[in-house]
Amino acid sequence: MNQSEALFKRACKTIPGGVNSPVRAGKSVEMTPPFIADASGAVIRDVEGNAYIDYVGSWGPMILGHAHPAVTAAIQERLGKGTSYGAPTELEVIMAETIVDMVPAIEMVRMVNSGTEAAMSAIRLARGVTGRKMIVKFDGCYHGHADSLLVSAGSGLATLGIPGSPGVPDDLAKHTLSLPFNDTEGLNAAFDRYGHEIACIIVEPVPANMGVIVPDITFLQRLREITTAFGAILIFDEVISGFRVAPGGAQERCGIHPDLTCLGKIIGGGLPVGAYGGKREIMLRMAPEGDVYQAGTLSGNPLAMAAGIATLTTLRQMDPYQQLEKMGDTLFSGLKTLAEKAGIPLTVNRVGSMGSIFFAETPVSDFKTAKASDAGRFKQYYKAMRARGIYLAPSPFEAAFISTAHTEELIEKTLRAAAGAFEEMSR
Ligand code: KE4
């Protein structure tokens, strides 16, 4: 038994499943998760000292790579001043001003501690503002684990094959309508039937929790039209796509402005964070200004703010999006070519520096087609790549992320590993 296996065995005695978030356990690939000792740049090292090129990036936050000097320095500078006060700081004002400046549809923003809190707060606000109960989400999209949103969620739930979750009361789940993504007809039919009962649509404008799905722009435009027509709130969950696919996220890329936006991950630089924001007149309904309640002991935590501000400031200075686009294209078109050479059908979906591969012969455009891809082949691929020093998400329903620390040389090394993996799989 190696050290990770020993630690996992030990962890399972006191932590459910040995992990603090289900998808980390790698159940769908049937491998013990590596226990991490440290990471820097694009490389992560396990407790045995094995080094891997990292495409998980903490599931999105590490767009600058691990232990980026600017982020580390910002945290260290704050440490000596205390870790939490429960009172406002200038850092929170700087963070809010930066988000408002960078994200087109955000005029006011509230910090929370996770993407889950951001999404649950945004739907509570939408229900409060409209006085309506029903919310619309899309199969395969994941917005954290708040009760109303664990209905055909993607990510962990998709990986574990649980359609919803025990513990979510039926009379709450019944207010959530989950529709197929990229299906305008289904959307129109739902609004024809329930339109005036619908408080909001919450959507990942670039889904990344059923693997990455490329949105049909006319579908996204229809979301905006139909919510406006029926007086419902449009919420873009940009916890992953925010600052990832463009400085202003997916809403900058597609030019569609939601009423509310959820953020997380990148804005904390790896520390616990979330945020929701949007139109001023909607956000002013939040306590203590307004009557919709939401709170959090550690919301706007100074260490998380320092790390997040350093991350966003560095991103603005570097403006790495063209380089990330190029690296993404090199990696994912390379994977497609290599798989074809090995006679292995592969569908590749990518937006900027995040993408997924599906072992499928047909396009993957929604949860149904994502689930139809060959999970057994993914397991073989995952094992073969990990054996060759490439660290991928242990699930076919996640994204691979490229950071600014990934070099052409590391991408080439990854493609060489993939060539070996596909060759092994084709035998
Ligand atoms: P957190 O509560 O995990 O910070 O954020 C929830 C969330 C909300 N919205 C989107 C679009 C998300 O992708 C997430 C969380 N993402 C998953 C992985 N795809 C987190 C990984 C995990 O659950 O451990």
Primary descriptors:
427 residues, alpha/beta, Aspartate Aminotransferase, domain 2, 14 strands, 15% strand, globular, binds ligand KE4
Can you describe this structure?
The chain has 427 residues and is of the alpha/beta class. Among the domains are: 1-35, no CATH class; 69-318, Type I PLP-dependent aspartate aminotransferase-like (Major domain) (Aspartate Aminotransferase, domain 2). Helices cover 40% and strands 15% of the residues. The strands form 3 sheets. A 7-stranded mixed β-sheet has the order 4-10-9-8-7-5-6, with helices on both faces. Strands 1-2-3-13 form a 4-stranded mixed β-sheet. Helix 3 (90-102) runs parallel beside helix 11 (302-318) and helix 14 crosses helix 15 (408-426). It is globular. The two termini are 29 Å apart. The model is unreliable at 156-163 (pLDDT under 50). Bound molecules: ligand KE4.
* Radius of gyration computed on alpha carbons: 21 Å
Number of continuous helical runs:
15
CATH topology of the domain at 69-318: Aspartate Aminotransferase, domain 2
Q: Which CATH C-level class of the domain at 69-318 is it?
A: Alpha Beta
CATH superfamily descriptor of the domain at 69-318: Type I PLP-dependent aspartate aminotransferase-like (Major domain)
Q: Helix/strand-derived class?
A: alpha/beta
Number of strands: 14
Spans of 5+ residues with little confidence (pLDDT < 50)? 156-163
Strand content: 5-15%
Instruction: Write down the oligomeric state.
Output: single chain
Briefly, what is this?
The protein has 427 residues and is of the alpha/beta class. The protein is 40% helix and 15% strand.
